[in-house]
Amino acid sequence: MDSNTPHIITDLNLQIRFVSQAAAELLNKKKFTGLNLKELFEVESITDDLSIGSNQSHRFILDRHNCQDGYCFLLQEQKNNTEHLDFLVDAISSSSIGIWRYNIETKTIYLSDISRRILGVNPNIKLTWRKLLSLVHCDDRALFPLFFENHVQFGVPLQFEFRLKLSGQQSWFGLKGSCINKSSGQWINGTLQDCTVEKTTVIALNDADESKQLAIEAGKIGTWRATKSGNQWLWKWDMLANTIFKLSPEDIGDLNKWIELLHPEDKPRVQAALEDSLGTGVEFKQHYRSILKSGEVIYVFAQGRVGKNYKGEYCRIDGVCVDQTEIHTTQLALKKLNSELETRVNDRTAELHNTLQKAEQANRIKSEFLSMISHELRTPLNGIIGALDLLSHCPLSHEPKDLVETASTSANHLITILNDLLDLNKIEAGKLELETVKFNLPSVISNLVNTFSATAKEKGIELNIFESPADSLILKGDESRFLQILLNILSNAVKFTHCDSVPVKKITVETHINKLNIYQSEVCVSVSDTGVGMSNDTIQKLFTPFTQAEKSTTRKFGGTGLGLSICGKLIDLMGGKICVESKLGVGSKFTVTAPFWLELTENEIEDKSPLNCYIVGKLSDKNQHILTLLQSAFHTNIVNLENKQIISSADVSHNVVLTNDLDMFLDHIETLCAINKVIVYSDRSLVELIALSAPFLAVFANQPITLKLLEKQINAQQQDQLLIEDFSLDFDSDDSIEASLSEEDSPQTAEYDIHDILLVEDNPFNQKLIKSQLAKLGLSCDVANNGAEGFNFWHSGTYKLILTDCHMPKVDGYEMTKQIRTEEAKTDQPPVPIIAVTGAVMQGERDLCSSIGMNDFLCKPIRLNDIKSIMERWYEHST
Amino acid sequence: MNTQLNELKTLNRNTIIELVGDEPAKIAKFHVEFLKQASVILKGIVKSFNISDFKELKSQAHYLKTSARAVGAERCAYFLETIESYSLDQNKPAIKQVIIKLNGEFGAIKKELSHGK
């Protein structure tokens, strides 16, 4: 180094040994002997290669170099101090590095503005060491004294990170510093940086790494990789992979050790796949076996992906390997089990198939037998029923008649059971085919109600029918089977409502049709009763053949339990359903729903006839229903008679009165008399009274009523004539009562050869009655059927008394009396007492009888006491 | 309200007892006799009605009325008397309704007798 270069040579203790000319000029000093470099440049120590010192208010950079037995320091004056400082300040500011200084003795702290800002400390607040520590996270506070003391005492580098909570968020800070001895004392100077982002990233990375590691360890997944160095692939795998293959730690990275373990059958395939992946970059994915050193065979699945370098060359492969021996073993066991199960299932299926075939065959034989036996039983049974029917028409006394009736009922019941059995068989055998005929719901309901209305009335059951007025669509389906279902359900309702334990006996039938589309509609008929009801358990088994609701049901109510079973199967065939709601002791509701086709041909719109509907009093629910039905079938004009409004149009031939108020009805009776062909509907309780009060009016109960019945009653009202067949009392052939009495009809009347009383009466009933009465008094009479016969009898015989009816055909009682009295006068005979017997009770009648010559008067019907008095008065005193 | 009409019975069994005494067998015989007669006369009434022979109608109603009274068929007797009355007026629509009701009454008597036997 030449003398023009300002430099100073020192020994190892920094004692100055040589100062160059240039250095002396720069320092403006000539004598340096015995001086120490530290004294010369006012530095405490020189530890770094580059130091700054000052001499005579000039600052110098000391650039230290090693030389023989000492150091050579190159001097450079820092001519422009502020320029360097500005650079330093800018660098610190732009990098957000905070500066701090801490005096160890006084424990005072100085924080730069940046430090205060990043720590969130107000620049105006005087910050103490204690206060600073209070801001630090409690877990990190101990780091400060620990690092500071260790640094001061042992020279341990002062560098650590701590947390601070700023505005509710936790931030991380990095603190660095070093101790400096100055004339003003011992200081620690350092920097402070916000490292929250770096720290959070590191923590997240550590967390992810730990998580990945734990997962890999838990899954016993080994990892492996290889990197290409030149043409050489360098292999490495982790301990887990090593453990899978039970290799020694020193085997890690030796690919041959792994290859040696490959199962001979798998080795060519796996090696080729690996080479292919390394050469072409395709994914490596292989299941293979390895034979471990212990001879154990393991099943491994390995998968790896190949990566490229910036040149696009395949340079690395990373992958995993999993020991699947346990899974493989389990799969094998499962396969075996599956195979065994399959065999057992096949065996069992074959057995079941055989059993099913046998059962089906047995069922078929049973059905055929039942069908055959039912047919066979029906033939003689029909004979029995026919014979019993003929027998029942023969005159029989009471006891045989009863026996015939019992036999006939039983035979009919038996044939019903046989029919049910045949039906059930047919359905079960799939041989029952549904018919498709046109019908309408009102006709079905009419048939249903006609079948049961009389029975219900007889059993004291109130039967109500509520038909929806829109039910008159023409349907297509099996009308008779649908009716069969409804008959069965209503029959059950009647059966289970007619019971002593049921206080209010009521059955309600409601109907409606839902038009689903132009082709189809859904018919819904519900039958609800107040009968004995059922439990839920009973409902469940209701449609099972031969099952009655309760065991006691058969005993109590009879039946085979076939009816509902058949209904259930029939409705299934129809594609409908039967819903049952019931509560023990409260009643049941059966709702039958079935789909039917609609007749597509357009119905001719019939002209509705006009009808006047007179409402007398408040309209009851049942009368309201009648009104609804009327409005659906007629052009109905409603007239409220409360307003004394009378509309009696001659061209309105249909006139209906709806009333439930007898007094108000009687108030309007004269008005109603004037109305043409009027028909009255009322609640059943008032029907008889109205019918008696206004015998000239047709009076009907408003329930049970169907649309068909209503139309029939209204149309019948239009008929001027009566059909004779409607007035057959069916008594000409009904000898049941008479026959039962024939034995008791012993001739108590005294029979005398000579009768001195003559009865002239055209009515055989009255003849018998009076004869019987006379017999009761020990008397007898001859009987003449009219006045002419009576005169002849009198003329040819000797009678002490004549009883005669007044009104008779041919010659009446008056005429006969006149003839007798004339003849008596002619022949001078004493007048025979003639007693008028007449139904007329007026005084005028009595006077007429007296004026003609009759002696006394008896009013029909003749009481026994009256005839006795007459006999005492006229017969016993007669000569 | 017309209480008298309300009290009319379909079959007042006391009436016949007053006529022939309390002899069930004999009474039953008369009941049967009455129904047999009613069966025949009712058809005659309907025939007369259909040909509007009101005189014959009245006569038949009267004929049966005495029998009905005798057996205690009070409502029947009432309807028959009403037919007699309407026959005089030749009120055919009213007679038609009464005949229908009369028919119903015979049915009721028959039923009552069947139940009471």
Automatic annotation (TrEMBL), chain A:
Domain Histidine kinase: 372-598
Entry's Gene Ontology molecular function annotations: phosphorelay sensor kinase activity
Major enzyme class: transferase
Domain of life, per lineage: Bacteria
Keyword Phosphoprotein on entry: yes
E.C. code: 2.7.13.3
SMART domains in UniProt: HATPase_c, HisKA, PAS, REC
Domain Response regulatory: 756-875
Keyword annotations from UniProtKB, A to Z: Phosphoprotein, Two-component regulatory system
Alphabetized Gene3D superfamilies for the sequence: 1.10.287.130, 3.40.50.2300, Histidine kinase-like ATPase, C-terminal domain (3.30.565.10), PAS domain (3.30.450.20)
InterPro entries noted in UniProt: CheY-like_superfamily (IPR011006), HATPase_C_sf (IPR036890), HATPase_dom (IPR003594), His_kinase_dom (IPR005467), HisK_dim/P_dom (IPR003661), HisK_dim/P_sf (IPR036097), PAS (IPR000014), PAS-like_dom_sf (IPR035965)
PROSITE patterns listed in its UniProt record: HIS_KIN, PAS, RESPONSE_REGULATORY
Protein name as it appears in the record: histidine kinase
The organism of origin for this protein: Pseudoalteromonas luteoviolacea H33
TrEMBL record, chain B:
GO biological process annotation, one example: phosphorelay signal transduction system
Domain HPt: 33-93
Molecular function, one GO term: protein kinase activity
A Pfam family of this chain: Hpt
Signal peptide: none
Keyword field: Two-component regulatory system
DNA repair is among the record's keywords: no
Keyword Magnesium attached: no
Name used for this protein in its record: HPt domain-containing protein
Source organism of this protein record: Pseudoalteromonas luteoviolacea H33
